Amino acid sequence: MAEDYRAMWNSLGLNLEAHQGLLAVLSDGYQSIYLSQKDRPAGMQYFDFVISEVHGLRIVELLKAKTEGKLIVGTFCVYVPEELILALDGVAIGLCAGADVGSEEAEKYLPRNTCALIKGFMGFKLAGLCPYVESADLIIGETTCDGKKKAYEVFDEITKKMYVMELPNKKSDDGRLLWRNEIKRLAEKLSAVTGRQITLDKLKEASRIVDAKRQALQRLSNLRANDPTPISGLDALLVNQISFYDDPIRFTAKLNELCDELDERAKKGTGVAPKGIPRVLVSGSPMAIPNWKLHSIIEGSGGIVVGEEACVGERNFRDLLGSFSTVDEAMEKMADRTMGINCACFTPNDGRLADISDMSQRLHAQGVVHYALQFCTPYLVEAYMAKNAVEAAGMPFLRIETDYSLEDAGQLKTRVEAFIEIIRQGRGS
Amino acid sequence: MAEDYRAMWNSLGLNLEAHQGLLAVLSDGYQSIYLSQKDRPAGMQYFDFVISEVHGLRIVELLKAKTEGKLIVGTFCVYVPEELILALDGVAIGLCAGADVGSEEAEKYLPRNTCALIKGFMGFKLAGLCPYVESADLIIGETTCDGKKKAYEVFDEITKKMYVMELPNKKSDDGRLLWRNEIKRLAEKLSAVTGRQITLDKLKEASRIVDAKRQALQRLSNLRANDPTPISGLDALLVNQISFYDDPIRFTAKLNELCDELDERAKKGTGVAPKGIPRVLVSGSPMAIPNWKLHSIIEGSGGIVVGEEACVGERNFRDLLGSFSTVDEAMEKMADRTMGINCACFTPNDGRLADISDMSQRLHAQGVVHYALQFCTPYLVEAYMAKNAVEAAGMPFLRIETDYSLEDAGQLKTRVEAFIEIIRQGRGS
Questions:
Q1: What is the spatial distance between Cα A167 and Cα A179, in angstroms, rounded to a whole number?
Q2: Distance separating alpha carbons of residues B139 and A77, to the nearest angstrom
Q3: Given an 8 Å threshold on Cβ–Cβ distance, is B377 in contact with A146?
Q4: Given an 8 Å threshold on Cβ–Cβ distance, is B111 in contact with A151?
Q5: Cβ proximity of B91 and B157 under 8 Å
Q6: Which of A175, A381, A401 sits opposite B150 (nearest CB)?
Q7: Residues 6 or more apart from B179 whose CB is under 8 A from it?
Q8: Among B104, B139, B146, B234, which is least packed, fewest CB within 10 Å?
Q9: How far apart are CA A87 and CA A190, in angstroms?
Q10: What digits encode the pLDDT tens for the residues B259-310?
Q11: What are phi and psi of B230, to 5 degrees?
Q12: Of residues B199, B168, B174, B426, the one with CA closest to residue B328
C-alpha cells in the first residue's frame, strides 16, 4: 500500500487486523498467480496498480465522490443498468464476494449449502472486510437465483441498504414488461434517493460512458481470437473483474491503451504463449475478485483461456445500449439489452447454448470448460444441456464444480491436464 | 394388492421387478409407521385402502378416464389451479416424488446437490417406478425454485410432456398480472390440448368440487385444534397427501365422514394421545408420499403434530376460490387466491411468518419445527427469519434439514426428544 489507509478503514468500521491479514494473503496470491506470468503486456501495469489499491485509493475516490454528493451504489449483477446509476450522478461498484472470508459468520445466517459467492458477500460484510459495502449508500440486488433472492432479505436486515429488482423467470412478453417496469422503478428510486431528476442529456452522457467501456471490453475479447493470443486468460479475466470497480472513463482509456498494445502484438504475431497451444472457452458462473482459481489451473496446465461466456465476461459487454432520443426509449432499450443476456436463471435458456457456440467459433476455442460454483443450481443443471450441445458440435467438454477453497486444486489440475491433452490430440470430434 | 396389476404396469413401461420391490418396502413402512398407531379413527380405513391401491386401482381409474377422453394432468405445486384442469374434463394428480428412488439415474442428469423431492420425481421416472408420470398426458410445472425450474427443462427432454407456468418472484402488481396471464394461458393450453372450450358452468362445477375438498381439509385442520387431538399428525398428513391423488368428490365425502367421527371424539374429549402432550406445528418444505419421516419421529418422541404450514398442508386449502359470475372473474380470483399462498419462493415472504403465528395460536401449538429438505434454498434461508419470529413470540423453535434417507433418523430423534422436553417444561418463553 502506497499510503497508510488505516484511519479510513477504521472510520468505515473494518476489522483492521483481519483486513491487514486479508490484504497480505491477496498480495501473496497476486504475486504468485499474476506477477509470475511471462511476456505480460506493459499495459497490465495499470491494472496491477488498480488491484494493489482496490481497498485503498479507490475507496479514497469513492469517499471523495460521496462528499461531492454522489451516490455510491453497490451491485451484484449485470442485469442492473449501470447507465441509470451514472445518469443520476451515482457511482456503480461491485461488492466483495470472491474469497472464502467470514464464512463461519455467514453460516450463522445462511445455510451451509450456499454458494461461495453468496457466502462471500455475506462473510465479507460480517467480518468487516469489505470497504465497498461500507461505502455504499444503496445496494441493488436482483432475483436471479434462490440463493441471492433470499439472502438479500437477510443482507438487508444487516446492512439496511438493499433495494431488490425483480427479474422474471422467463423471457416472455409479460416478463419483459415486468422487467421494463422494474427499470423504471429503479430510476424513480434513484431519483428519490438523490433528489435529482433523470434527464435525456445526463442519460445520453452516461450511456456514452458505459457503451464506450463495453466497446473497449469487446475489443479486448476480439483480440483474444488471435493465435498466438496476445494476452493471457488470467489477465483478461482481471480486466473484466476490474471493470466492475474502476472509474469507467479512466478504465476505458487504460483498456484501449492496452488493446493498442495487443493490436501491435497481433500484427507482429507475438503473444503470451506459443502459437497452437490448446484454446479453452470458459462458460458458467461469475468469478469475482480474487477468484482466479480456474484460469490459473488451465493456464498452468498448458492451455490458454480465450474467452469467458459469463457475467464477469462476455455477458457484461456483448450488447451495447446504442442511441435513443427520449428517456422512455432508453428504458425500453435497457430492458431489451439486458433481456438479451442469457443467464441460467431463465427457463428455458437456449440462447446461452448459441452463445457458447458463437464464442467458440469466433475465438477459435477447441474445448469448453463449464464452470459452476458448488450449489449454484442454475448453472449446475444447465451444464447438462451445455455438455450435450458442445459435444454434439464435436468439441470436448469438461464440467467443473468447485468453490473458493484450494483443497480440490490438485484434483482439478489432474482433470484439466487430461482435458488439455484431449484437445492437443484433437480427440474432440 | 387386491388384483394383479402387472399387465397394466407393464403396458405403462414400468420396471416390474423394481416396482415390486418398491411396493414391498412401502407396504412394510406403512405397516410399521401407520398401522402400528393406537386409537386410529375408523375413518382412516378408507385412506389406508387408497394408499394400498395408490399404484393399482387409482391407475386403473386414470386409464379408464383416459379412454373416456379425459386429460390426465400431472402437477407438482399448489400454485397450479386445479379448477381449470377439472373444468376442461381433466384429472389432476400429483407425481411420485417422496422417496429416494432412482437417484443414481437422476444424478446422470441433475447435480448431486439437488433436493430429494426433485431427485425423486426424476428418479421415479428414470427407474420406471411412477405409474402417474406414465399415465399423464401433460405435466404442469412452475418456476417456484431454481431446482424445479431448471430440472423441468431436463424432465421435458425425457418425458416430452412438460408445460411450465411462470410464477413471479415478488407479489407486486406486475407480478400478479404476469401470473394472472399465465393462468389464462394455461386455460388456452388446456383448451388446445383437449379441443374443448372452457365454460362458466363447467368452471363453476369444477370450483364447487375443489372448494368442497378445501373445506373438508379446513375442517380436518380445525379439528386438530382440540386437546386431546382426535387424529394423529401422521394420519392428517396422509389425508393431505392423498388429496393430491384421489378423485376429489369421493375424497371429500370420505374426509367429511372422517371429520364427523373426529367431531364425535372432540365432543367426548377423546383423542389419539393424552390431553396435554406437547403440541407441535411443522412448517416448511412439502412432504410427498411416502415421506412420513419427520411426523413419525415427532410422534414417536412423545409429541403430536397439530398442523402443517406447508404446501402439503394448510397452504393447499386455506383459501377458497369462492363465487364468480364470469370466466374472467374466475381467472382473477384464481390469481388472487394463489397469490395469497406464502411460499418461500417469493421475496419478501413475510406473510408466511404471520401464517406460522396464526396457525400456532389457532391450533394451540407450543413449538414450531421448521422442516427443510436439504438443498431447498428458499426454505433453508427462510428458516432464519422464521426462527427469529417464532422465538420473539416466546415459542421454542427447532430447525431440521434432512432428506429421505434414514441415516440421520437417530440423530433427529435425539434432537426432537430434547425439543419435546423443552416444550414439556414450558421453557419456550
A1: 6
A2: 33
A3: yes
A4: no
A5: no
A6: A381
A7: B166, B167, B168, B335, B338, B339
A8: B104
A9: 10
A10: 999 999 999 999 999 999 999 999 999 999 999 999 999 999 999 999 999 9
A11: -75, -10
A12: B199
